[in-house]
């Protein structure tokens, strides 16, 4: 008798947005570095573009769909091509960019977007440590104002943005670093390198804890640190240039699973969703996005489905889970860049008959509040990410609830209840009435005094 493995995501399917909900008319970067060329958060989409006389990238609001105005504002403060961009997970208006000019810059984007404004003054410029192209930037998953950058040196620098200085410089790779990822609490790093080694590194001390031989092929391999499952997930190539994925024990780097995918030569980008333990694989030059589910026992990785399109992608970025629309059971959303300057959102949904909130599809996810301050992390403290519920609240739904939460969090206040607000209004009205009464009494006393003085003056 055959048994079907139980999975909440067995019937997930991807749907591309209609043309009037897509973005077009921009000139995507043609740089050959292995980069996704885009980044997204619940407010904005950033796309690295080809630019003469320096590097630049577009920042688009999600409602700025259709053909992009040729005069649309851009962020253009780098002297050479921008190679990577990353949004701050704790501030939807802050983005980091790295460039061939060896610098990393931090930018603040206004809520209304850029319009026709050209933004060329960064909040902060990080320089001096890297001597060659800086090809990757990555924010810390739980600590505020901690940013990682990697270059062709090969050097990894962990920056303290409060001081603008390096907190740690990690120089343990003999060759080009292909890929880096933080673990769940940001205490460890996993890296892949041109020397075909996989390494686990202590992020604060900079020393290698474990290393092992990775995929045997010479082409780039990438890694995702699936810390809540205690494994690493990598994609690479065999000696015969077949694409593979592998699962490794995060503590010992023992190989737990190794499977061949296909014979394509495109490098696969990995997106890991720690809330649902899902893996998405999107190859640069592929027209397919693969969807897998990770488990903690053999065979560790289960293929679920593929999303197929007619046009190959040049880059892919994924929306943070807090930006997904739970009212339509959207478990993931990605933005696919194609070479002709076109970006289409792709929504991955799970069909359910009920319109109620599906708790099994949407466990609590990482929130937009840091769990640690910069100093706490540098002093050695660890913490898991702060979580938030995606359950819709009131008629505004999940997104409205999250916007209210974000705004109040920025002010460091809690949302007042309606009764409390009414009580405060009554109290304020009583205070105003008391002040008016006091002023009236003072005026009457002054009138009597003036009248008495007038009588004395008349007698004189």
TrEMBL record:
GO terms for molecular function: actin filament binding. WD repeats lie at residues 75-109, 127-169, 170-211. InterPro entries: Coronin, DUF1899, WD40/YVTN_repeat-like_dom_sf, WD40_repeat_CS, WD40_repeat_dom_sf, WD40_rpt. Residues 383-424 are annotated as: Disordered. Signal peptide: none annotated. It comes from the Eukaryota. Gene3D superfamilies: YVTN repeat-like/Quinoprotein amine dehydrogenase. GO terms for biological process: actin filament organization. Keywords: Actin-binding, Coiled coil, Repeat, WD repeat. SMART domains: DUF1899 (SM01166), DUF1900 (SM01167), WD40 (SM00320). Residues 2-66 form the DUF1899 domain. Pfam families: DUF1899 (PF08953), WD40 (PF00400), WD40_4 (PF16300). Belongs to the WD repeat coronin family. PANTHER family: CORONIN (PTHR10856). This is Coronin. It comes from Acropora cervicornis.
């Amino acid at each position: 008798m055959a048994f079907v493995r139980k999975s909440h995501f067995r019937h997930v399917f991807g749907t591309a947005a209609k043309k009037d909900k897509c973005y077009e008319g921009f000139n995507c970067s043609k740089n050959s570095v292995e980069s996704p060329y885009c980044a997204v958060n619940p407010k904005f989409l950033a796309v690295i573009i080809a630019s003469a006389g320096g590097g630049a990238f577009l920042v688009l609001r999600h409602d700025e769909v259709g053909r992009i105005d040729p005069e649309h504002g851009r962020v253009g403060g780098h002297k050479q091509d921008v190679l990577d961009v990353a949004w701050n997970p704790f501030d939807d208006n802050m983005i980091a960019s790295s460039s061939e000019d060896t610098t990393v810059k931090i930018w603040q984007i206004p809520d209304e977007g850029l319009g026709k404004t050209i933004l060329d003054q960064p909040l902060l410029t990080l320089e001096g440590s890297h001597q060659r192209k800086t090809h990757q930037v990555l924010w810390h998953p739980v600590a505020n104002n901690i940013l990682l950058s990697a270059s062709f040196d090969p050097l990894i620098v962990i920056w303290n943005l409060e001081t603008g200085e390096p907190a740690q410089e990690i120089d343990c790779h003999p060759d080009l670093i292909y890929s880096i990822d933080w673990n769940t609490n940001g205490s460890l790093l996993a890296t892949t390198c041109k020397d075909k080694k996989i390494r686990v590194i202590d992020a604060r001390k900079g020393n290698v804890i474990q290393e092992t031989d990775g995929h045997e092929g010479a082409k780039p391999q990438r890694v995702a640190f699936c810390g809540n499952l205690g494994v690493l997930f990598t994609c690479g190539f065999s000696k015969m240039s077949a694409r593979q994925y592998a699962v490794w024990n995060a503590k010992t780097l023992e190989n737990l699973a190794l499977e061949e995918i296909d014979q394509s030569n495109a490098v696969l980008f990995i997106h890991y969703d720690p809330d649902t333990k899902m893996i998405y694989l999107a190859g640069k030059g592929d027209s397919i996005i693969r969807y897998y589910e990770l488990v903690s026992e053999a065979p560790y990785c289960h293929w679920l489905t593929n999303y197929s399109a007619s046009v190959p992608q040049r880059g892919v970025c994924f929306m943070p889970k807090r930006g997904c629309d739970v009212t339509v059971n959207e478990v993931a959303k990605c933005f696919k860049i194609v070479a002709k300057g076109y970006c289409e959102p792709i929504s991955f949904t799970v069909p359910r008959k009920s319109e109620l909130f599906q708790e099994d599809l949407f466990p609590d996810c990482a929130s937009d509040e840091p769990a640690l301050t910069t100093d706490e992390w540098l002093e050695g403290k660890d913490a898991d990410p702060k979580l938030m519920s995606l359950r819709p609240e009131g008629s505004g739904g999940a997104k409205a609830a999250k916007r209210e939460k974000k705004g109040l969090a920025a002010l460091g206040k809690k949302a007042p209840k309606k009764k409390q607000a009414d009580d405060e209004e009554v109290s304020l009205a009583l205070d105003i009435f008391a002040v008016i009464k006091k002023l009236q009494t003072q005026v009457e006393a002054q009138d009597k005094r003036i009248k008495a003085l007038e009588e004395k003056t008349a007698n004189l």
